[in-house]
Design a protein that fits this description.
- Keywords: Signal.
- This protein has 16 helices and 15 strands.
- The chain is an alpha/beta fold.
- The chain folds into 2 domains: 169 residues, D-Maltodextrin-Binding Protein, domain 2 (3-Layer(aba) Sandwich); 213 residues, 3-Layer(aba) Sandwich (D-Maltodextrin-Binding Protein, domain 2).
- The strands form 4 sheets. Strands 1, 2, 3, 6, 13, 14 and 15 form a 7-stranded mixed beta sheet that branches.
Length: 440
């Protein structure tokens, strides 16, 4: 063996032994440790192209500290988060769309208050402050928002079709089937009874047996009209995004209900996010829903909205810093640049970058400028147990919209409401946090 190489290896081993000895002597002082910041875990609802765009933004959000992030996207967000919390392994940051769930987590001591900078971006009605343990704090901030009070329609259908829409309805959505129907009932109640009644109902302060709530259900049934068993079965089993288009990207792209339902329908009530399925169809237009829902004119300026809010679940200070940065202008500009044109998110502040396609611009103007009042999705305000019961009740009523069945369902929902936390429970979402003028 080469003697020079042998001496070199001997010196290397000696140096390594010396290094280990020094580490053992200095370990109590914190030396010889890996000082790189640990990777933060972000749990969120976006998968596919949406998830890739968010993750790309996250990877580009370099603050010069060497902080790294990993994104976990799932369609079973609540189930995944509950499992992680039960295993005492929560994500550092989770992005949720339910104010009811967020309120429960804050009340249970699972959430950490946000920084002052992030709290300043907690625009109502997406992120009202909560009073927990006698202190009023902000626990989440909206990252992405959506407008729900919209109707999508095919053009060229003629005046008769416009006067008497033939509504597309699909209620299937994996474990959360039924929510497209709850959106209908919420929107109808908002436009017929107004924001004050809507708020009382959403926060559990109004009985489900109230005539105004009952009227929203029967109005929905009247708008949809009489349906055959085949039509009802199709609506109960079809996904809310419709069936895949066999001519697009190997058949994996949904074509929306306007291109999926048989026989053909002319109008669809759906949130702003659905615009991505109609991005290449110049015949589809979007209108505010108020003109189709038999509401009162003085409530036409009220719109139902939804959002995806970021909250901190860990004690790592870097997680609070991340939420502060995610809600800022740099992250939003990056996010918009990484997303496909028809998937570019809406933000709550008119000064933030917004979609530039014609439909996106129209929706952004309503969200940030034109609306008189924005009211958060009522079922997402409710406690999770009541929200889930609402979903199931909608499916049962759609299958059998008889008066007696409706009375039975409303009685059951009211029993669930009465079992929920009382108004005085710490951390309960305040009534003032459900509806608000456009913020930012």
């Amino acid at each position: 063996m080469n003697r020079t190489r042998t001496r070199s290896r001997t010196r290397t081993r000696a140096a390594f032994r010396g290094f280990l000895a020094a580490c053992l002597l200095a370990v109590t002082a914190g030396a010889c440790t890996d000082e790189r910041p640990e990777t933060l875990v972000v749990l969120g609802p976006w998968t596919g192209d949406e998830g890739e765009a968010f993750e790309a933004m996250l990877n580009k959000l370099d603050d010069g500290t060497g902080q790294t992030y990993t994104y976990q996207g799932t369609r079973s967000l609540r189930e995944t988060l509950v499992a992680q919390l039960e295993a005492d392994a929560p994500p550092d940051v989770a992005i949720l769309n339910s104010l009811g769930e967020l309120t429960e987590y804050a009340r249970a001591g699972r959430l950490r208050p946000l920084t002052t900078t992030a709290a300043a971006r907690a625009y109502p009605p997406w992120a009202p402050p909560l009073s927990v343990d006698g202190t009023r704090r902000t626990y989440w901030v909206p990252l992405k928002v959506d407008l729900k009070s919209l109707v999508w329609r095919k053009t060229g259908q003629g005046a008769r079709a416009a006067a008497a829409p033939k509504w597309c309805v699909a209620l299937a959505s994996q474990a959360t089937s039924g929510w497209p129907g709850t959106d209908w009932i919420e929107d109808i109640l908002l436009h017929r009874a107004g924001p004050d009644v809507y708020t009382e109902w959403a926060t559990g302060r109004l009985s489900w047996r109230d005539p105004r709530v009952r009227d929203a259900w029967t109005t929905w049934a009247a708008l949809l009209g009489k349906r055959s068993k085949a039509s009802v079965d199709q609506s109960l089993t079809m996904s809310y995004v419709g069936t895949p288009d066999p001519a697009a990207n190997g058949g994996g792209v949904p074509r929306g209900l306007l291109g999926s339902m048989t026989p053909r329908c002319t109008h669809e009530h759906q949130s702003a996010f659905i615009r991505y399925v109609y991005a290449d169809d110049d015949r589809v237009r979007v209108d505010p829903a108020a003109g189709f829902l038999r509401g009162r004119p003085d409530h036409d300026g009220a719109y139902e909205v939804a959002g995806d809010m970021a909250a901190v679940f860990s004690d790592n200070p870097a997680a609070r810093t991340l939420v502060e940065r995610l809600s800022g202008g740099t992250a939003r500009t990056l996010w918009r640049s990484q997303a496909q044109r028809e998937l570019r998110p809406f933000f709550p502040d008119a000064a933030d970058p917004q979609p530039t396609d014609p439909t996106g611009r129209r929706i952004a103007d309503i969200l940030t400028r034109e609306a008189d009042t924005l009211c958060f999705d009522a079922s997402d305000v409710m406690a999770p147990g009541l929200r889930d019961a609402f979903h199931r009740a909608v499916l049962r009523y759609f299958r059998d919209p008889k008066e007696a069945r409706l009375d039975e369902l409303l009685d059951q929902l009211d029993a669930v409401r009465e079992d929920a936390a009382p108004d005085t429970a710490p951390g309960r979402l305040p009534a003032s946090g459900v509806c608000a003028p456009p913020g930012g």
